[in-house]
Amino acid sequence: MASDQMDAILAQWRQQMPELDHSPAAVIGRITRLAQLLDQQLEPVFAEHGLAGGEFAVLAALRRAGAPYQLTPAELARSQMVTSGGMTKRLAALARRGLISREPAAADRRSLPVALTAAGKDLIEAVLPEHLANEKRLLAGLDSTTQHDLARLLGELALALGDRPRRRVAARN
């Protein structure tokens, strides 16, 4: 098996501080590194459509919610693990481009749910097939059994760390 960047880092730590158990870094370090590598490969697809990854995530969450393609800003922020300020910035950018709308809810005039516009729905439906094809390309080095096993193991780790779906989830993909 070929060595990756984490193998080199772990070898350095074992040499410098052999008394410590560095095995957790083999997992955590790789997950962190993979997140960076994946972002580098995912962002160009979004950029081709004038989106950043966070904006794509908002549009995808709204589309996944089903008709009327609407969620509250708090639901979006929780699902994407961003601050309310970070979500406000994403929503403002999408609203300026006419991809989402913010109108008072009929049941609670104080609430301003976020809804996909027709242009936003068209855009996410155009980008999503390209995004999924890109993800498939990125995983092509792993056979389907390995992909399934990896997804299961990562899910187990997420659960062990307390990740649970909320009553109305708007995840990243």
Percentage of residues in DSSP E strands: under 5%
Instruction: Kindly state the percentage of residues in helix.
Output: 55-70%
Poorly predicted ranges: none
Number of strands: 3
Number of helices: 7
Which series of helices and strands comes N to C? Answer: HHHEHHEEHH
**Biggest sheet details:** 3 strands, antiparallel
* Distance from first to last alpha carbon: 31 Å
CATH class of the largest domain: Mainly Alpha
Q: What sort of overall outline do the alpha carbons produce when their principal axes are compared?
A: elongated
Mean pLDDT: 90
CATH superfamily of the largest domain, by name, is: Winged helix-like DNA-binding domain superfamily/Winged helix DNA-binding domain
Number of domains: 2
CATH architecture of the largest domain: Orthogonal Bundle
Structural class: mainly alpha
Strand order of the largest sheet: 1-3-2
* CATH level-3 fold name of the largest domain: Arc Repressor Mutant, subunit A
Radius of gyration: 19 Å
